[in-house]
Write a structure and sequence with these properties.
It contains twelve helices and 15 strands. By secondary structure, the protein is of the alpha/beta class. Mean pLDDT is about 85; it is low at about 1-45.
Length: about 300
């Protein structure tokens, strides 16, 4: 949520960012919420000097992380533990910044940016894709991963579906998740959103394929492969990762942490620690248990993705 991407061999060929998971928000309702409450509770104090949130977090010893309950990016596991690719990175970085505790604040993916701006939590820790639309509302850390897409298909892939163009040409029934970037990728290939089956998450997508309600479920490669493996599905399988395109150009799906615009000091301090982890290889060691590999590591910057 592609030939395999190298470690940013095309990092200077950043195309138009897809419109949705990882999308802008979750449609007009979320935008309406942003307009209604987003500015009313966000203090502009500290904007000029980069904000004082880091000092306040150090004083209280806890940071609130907004998550969307999506495996493997940020979720509560079967033991009730708060985990995921993004939260595990956050736990390490915030401890090094002098904030020893992290508190999860679960919400819907489309409510993450409005929730951040209305101070329901301090940071979005959900593997959120960085794109220009979002950059107009929040500020991002540099990305901690980049991602290609993959499909869940029936065992043996009977319709031979390997990319969005295949779905369109073969008139296959496509499913994907609410507010996923895959909606935009599919539309770019000619598939109407009204013809898609929009589901709450990847587990619902796996079940839809197993039950024959959809021929294919589209998501990010790590998300898709994880759910098929965890469910040990006997009727469905995950395809190989592939590159999604927008307007004929490769679309860069890279995710990071979001902060309120007035809290640049916190974002910058976070970036310093993130870059140290990338350089040492610690970042990959932390995220590898969630299905991430060297292929997902990136040296892209938020500035590149926001422009």
């Amino acid at each position: 949520m592609a030939p395999p991407r190298g470690k940013d061999t095309d990092s200077r060929e950043i195309a138009k960012i897809g419109p949705s998971r990882r999308s802008l928000l979750a449609g007009g309702a979320a935008l309406g919420l942003l307009g209604a409450v987003g500015c009313s509770r966000v203090s502009a104090s500290g904007t000029k000097d980069g904000g004082n949130l880091l000092e306040r977090l150090r004083s209280q010893g806890t940071v609130r992380l907004g998550i969307a309950g999506e495996i493997p990016f940020g979720y509560i596991d079967k033991n009730g533990e708060f985990t995921g690719e993004a939260p595990e990175i956050a736990k390490v970085i915030f401890k090094r910044l002098g904030v020893p505790k992290v508190q999860p604040v679960p919400t819907e993916f489309g409510s993450l940016i409005p929730g951040l701006r209305s101070q329901q939590f301090d940071v979005v820790s959900a593997g959120m894709y960085i794109n220009p639309e979002r950059c107009a509302q929040v500020i991002f850390s540099d990305p901690d991963y980049r991602m290609r897409d993959a499909f869940i298909v029936r065992k043996g892939n009977p319709k031979n579906l390997h990319n969005y163009e295949d779905i369109f040409k073969k008139k296959a029934k496509m499913a994907t998740g609410t507010a996923y970037a895959e909606i935009g990728y599919a539309e770019d290939a000619g598939i109407k959103q009204s013809d898609m089956l929009i589901l709450p998450d990847q587990l619902a997508g796996l079940l839809a394929v197993e039950q024959g309600r959809a021929d294919v479920f589209a998501g990010t490669t790590v998300t898709v492969h994880n759910v098929v493996k965890q469910r040990n599905s006997q009727r469905a399988e995950a395809t190989e990762p592939f590159q999604a395109y927008v307007d004929g150009k490769p679309d860069i799906g890279a995710g990071g942490f979001a902060f309120r615009p007035e809290e640049a000091k916190l974002r910058d301090a976070f970036n310093v620690e993130l870059h140290k982890m990338k350089k040492s290889g610690e970042l990959l060691r932390i995220v590898r248990p969630f299905g991430f590999t060297e292929e997902e590591m990136t040296d892209l910057t938020a500035k590149e993705l926001c422009s």
